[in-house]
Specification:
- The chain is an all-alpha fold and 155 residues long.
- Helices cover 72% and strands 0% of the residues.
- It is built from seven helices and no strands.
- Helix 2 packs antiparallel against helix 3, helix 3 (39-61) packs antiparallel against helix 4 and helix 6 (113-119) runs antiparallel to helix 7.
Protein backbone atom coordinates (compact mmCIF):
# COMPACT_ATOMS: atom_id res chain seq x y z
CA UNK A 1 0.00 0.00 0.00
CA UNK A 2 2.69 2.49 1.01
CA UNK A 3 4.68 1.72 -2.10
CA UNK A 4 1.78 2.40 -4.43
CA UNK A 5 1.21 5.76 -2.71
CA UNK A 6 4.89 6.61 -3.07
CA UNK A 7 5.19 5.38 -6.66
CA UNK A 8 2.19 7.50 -7.68
CA UNK A 9 2.73 10.37 -5.21
CA UNK A 10 -0.69 9.63 -3.83
CA UNK A 11 -3.43 11.12 -6.02
CA UNK A 12 -1.06 13.09 -8.27
CA UNK A 13 -0.25 10.06 -10.42
CA UNK A 14 -3.93 9.54 -11.12
CA UNK A 15 -4.41 13.03 -12.54
CA UNK A 16 -6.51 12.48 -15.70
CA UNK A 17 -4.35 14.57 -18.04
CA UNK A 18 -0.56 14.48 -18.00
CA UNK A 19 0.29 12.74 -14.73
CA UNK A 20 3.99 12.84 -15.66
CA UNK A 21 3.82 16.59 -16.13
CA UNK A 22 2.04 16.90 -12.78
CA UNK A 23 4.81 14.87 -11.14
CA UNK A 24 7.42 17.14 -12.70
CA UNK A 25 5.59 20.22 -11.45
CA UNK A 26 5.34 18.70 -7.97
CA UNK A 27 9.13 18.31 -7.91
CA UNK A 28 9.89 21.98 -8.65
CA UNK A 29 9.25 23.50 -5.19
CA UNK A 30 11.33 20.79 -3.51
CA UNK A 31 14.17 21.21 -6.02
CA UNK A 32 14.10 24.99 -5.56
CA UNK A 33 14.14 24.88 -1.77
CA UNK A 34 16.85 22.22 -1.56
CA UNK A 35 19.01 24.05 -4.10
CA UNK A 36 18.76 27.24 -2.04
CA UNK A 37 19.48 25.43 1.25
CA UNK A 38 22.30 23.19 0.06
CA UNK A 39 23.16 21.71 -3.34
CA UNK A 40 24.83 18.67 -1.69
CA UNK A 41 21.60 18.11 0.23
CA UNK A 42 19.72 18.20 -3.08
CA UNK A 43 22.11 15.56 -4.44
CA UNK A 44 21.50 13.40 -1.38
CA UNK A 45 17.73 13.69 -1.63
CA UNK A 46 17.80 12.81 -5.34
CA UNK A 47 19.91 9.70 -4.68
CA UNK A 48 17.64 8.69 -1.80
CA UNK A 49 14.49 9.20 -3.89
CA UNK A 50 16.08 7.20 -6.70
CA UNK A 51 16.72 4.23 -4.38
CA UNK A 52 13.29 4.46 -2.75
CA UNK A 53 11.68 4.92 -6.16
CA UNK A 54 13.25 1.72 -7.49
CA UNK A 55 11.77 -0.24 -4.60
CA UNK A 56 8.40 1.49 -4.94
CA UNK A 57 8.21 0.83 -8.69
CA UNK A 58 9.27 -2.79 -8.24
CA UNK A 59 6.59 -3.34 -5.61
CA UNK A 60 3.90 -1.42 -7.49
CA UNK A 61 4.44 -3.24 -10.80
CA UNK A 62 5.19 -6.72 -9.38
CA UNK A 63 1.78 -8.21 -10.17
CA UNK A 64 0.86 -5.98 -13.09
CA UNK A 65 1.25 -6.61 -16.81
CA UNK A 66 2.14 -2.98 -17.54
CA UNK A 67 5.64 -2.30 -16.24
CA UNK A 68 5.66 1.47 -16.80
CA UNK A 69 2.14 2.69 -16.00
CA UNK A 70 1.53 6.40 -16.48
CA UNK A 71 0.34 6.75 -12.87
CA UNK A 72 3.84 5.89 -11.58
CA UNK A 73 5.50 9.30 -11.36
CA UNK A 74 8.22 9.01 -8.71
CA UNK A 75 10.60 8.66 -11.66
CA UNK A 76 9.45 12.05 -12.99
CA UNK A 77 10.16 13.63 -9.61
CA UNK A 78 13.70 12.24 -9.57
CA UNK A 79 14.38 13.15 -13.19
CA UNK A 80 12.96 16.66 -12.81
CA UNK A 81 15.18 17.40 -9.81
CA UNK A 82 18.40 16.39 -11.60
CA UNK A 83 18.85 19.52 -13.76
CA UNK A 84 18.83 21.66 -10.63
CA UNK A 85 21.63 19.63 -9.01
CA UNK A 86 24.10 21.63 -11.10
CA UNK A 87 22.41 25.04 -11.00
CA UNK A 88 24.39 27.57 -9.01
CA UNK A 89 22.07 28.79 -6.22
CA UNK A 90 22.49 32.41 -7.40
CA UNK A 91 20.99 31.36 -10.75
CA UNK A 92 18.07 29.50 -9.16
CA UNK A 93 15.04 31.70 -9.89
CA UNK A 94 11.76 31.25 -11.75
CA UNK A 95 13.12 31.53 -15.33
CA UNK A 96 15.67 28.80 -14.54
CA UNK A 97 12.95 26.65 -12.96
CA UNK A 98 10.74 27.11 -16.03
CA UNK A 99 13.58 26.34 -18.43
CA UNK A 100 14.65 23.28 -16.43
CA UNK A 101 11.06 22.06 -16.40
CA UNK A 102 10.59 22.64 -20.14
CA UNK A 103 13.89 20.99 -21.07
CA UNK A 104 13.24 17.97 -18.87
CA UNK A 105 9.74 17.49 -20.28
CA UNK A 106 11.09 17.89 -23.84
CA UNK A 107 13.69 15.14 -23.39
CA UNK A 108 11.27 12.94 -21.44
CA UNK A 109 8.58 13.16 -24.11
CA UNK A 110 10.73 12.93 -27.26
CA UNK A 111 13.15 10.33 -25.87
CA UNK A 112 16.48 10.80 -27.66
CA UNK A 113 19.51 8.55 -27.21
CA UNK A 114 19.91 7.21 -23.69
CA UNK A 115 16.36 8.21 -22.79
CA UNK A 116 15.00 5.94 -25.54
CA UNK A 117 17.45 3.18 -24.61
CA UNK A 118 16.24 3.09 -21.01
CA UNK A 119 12.60 3.56 -21.99
CA UNK A 120 12.73 0.26 -23.92
CA UNK A 121 13.74 -1.56 -20.73
CA UNK A 122 10.43 -2.43 -19.17
CA UNK A 123 11.72 -2.92 -15.64
CA UNK A 124 12.08 -0.65 -12.59
CA UNK A 125 15.62 0.43 -13.53
CA UNK A 126 14.48 1.37 -17.04
CA UNK A 127 11.49 3.27 -15.66
CA UNK A 128 13.79 5.33 -13.43
CA UNK A 129 16.74 5.72 -15.79
CA UNK A 130 14.84 7.12 -18.78
CA UNK A 131 13.86 10.06 -16.57
CA UNK A 132 17.32 10.29 -15.02
CA UNK A 133 18.75 10.48 -18.57
CA UNK A 134 16.26 13.19 -19.54
CA UNK A 135 17.25 15.09 -16.38
CA UNK A 136 20.94 14.78 -17.21
CA UNK A 137 20.37 16.12 -20.74
CA UNK A 138 18.34 19.04 -19.38
CA UNK A 139 20.99 19.67 -16.73
CA UNK A 140 23.73 19.76 -19.35
CA UNK A 141 21.91 22.52 -21.23
CA UNK A 142 21.29 24.48 -18.01
CA UNK A 143 25.00 24.16 -17.17
CA UNK A 144 25.96 25.49 -20.59
CA UNK A 145 23.58 28.43 -20.18
CA UNK A 146 25.12 29.26 -16.81
CA UNK A 147 28.60 29.26 -18.40
CA UNK A 148 27.41 31.50 -21.23
CA UNK A 149 25.76 33.91 -18.77
CA UNK A 150 28.90 34.12 -16.63
CA UNK A 151 31.49 34.23 -19.40
CA UNK A 152 29.76 36.44 -21.91
CA UNK A 153 27.40 38.57 -19.87
CA UNK A 154 29.19 38.77 -16.52
CA UNK A 155 26.14 37.59 -14.63
Amino acid sequence: WRFSKLATLGPIGYFPKGPGTMGSLAALPLAYILNKISVPLLWGVVFLLFAIGLVAIRQYTANKTEKDPSCVIIDEVVGQMIPFMIVIPDFMHWPMLFLGFALFRFFDIFKFGAVAFWDRRKNPMGVMMDDVSAGIFAGFILAMLQVICVEFFGM
